UniProtKB/TrEMBL annotation:
PROSITE patterns: GNAT (PS51186). Residues 13-180 form the N-acetyltransferase domain. InterPro entries: Acyl_CoA_acyltransferase (IPR016181), GNAT_dom (IPR000182), N-acetyltransferase (IPR051531). It comes from the Bacteria. Coiled coil: none annotated. It comes from Anabaena sphaerica FACHB-251. This is GNAT family N-acetyltransferase. Pfam families: Acetyltransf_3. One of its GO terms (molecular function) is acyltransferase activity, transferring groups other than amino-acyl groups.
Amino acid sequence: MLLIPINLETPRLLLRTFKYGDINAFIAYRNDPEVAKYQSWDIPYPETAAREFIEYLQQTKPGTLGEWYQLGIALKTTDEIIGDCAFCILAEDGQQAEIGFTLSRQHQGKGYATEAVTCLLAYLFTEYKLHRVRANCDSENIASIQLLERLGMRREGHFVKSLWFKGEWVDELWFAILREEWER
C-alpha cells in the first residue's frame, strides 16, 4: 500500500510523517522523565519500540476511523524532530476527533506546541470537515491545560480520580472545540 505522507507547515515548524532518521531524537524525548510523566508510555522507552512505532506509522493511513495517527513536529530550519502530535477520528461517528501532543523539554516554553496544535486543528477542521475536536489531560499538567485554553478549547469536564495511571488514581480534564468556534 502506497501512503501519501502528510507535510504541514507553520512559520517555524513542519508537521510531518515520521522517518527512520527521527529515531534518536524521538527516543531522547520519550525517555525524559519530565516529558513521559503525563504520557501513556513507560520509561525506559526502547529503540525497538521506536522502530516498531515508526514502521506502524508508515503503514497506517491518516484519518482511519478509530486509529491514532502521529505526526512528528520538526523545526523547519533543521528538520530535527522536537515532538509529536496525534489525532484519532472517532469511529462512532467520524465527525469528531481526539488530539494529543508531546514536546521535548528543551523546546517547551517557546510557543512551538501552540503553533503545532493550532496547525493540527486547522488541518482536522479543513481536511476532514470535523464537527468537534476534543483533548484530555491530567489535572496537574498545567502547561497542557494552558495550551488547550489558549487555543480556545473549552473545559467540558473534570473527572475526579477517574483514571488509574502509572500506579495511582488521577483526575482527568476534558476540553473541546467546535468547528464553528474554531472558524471564529
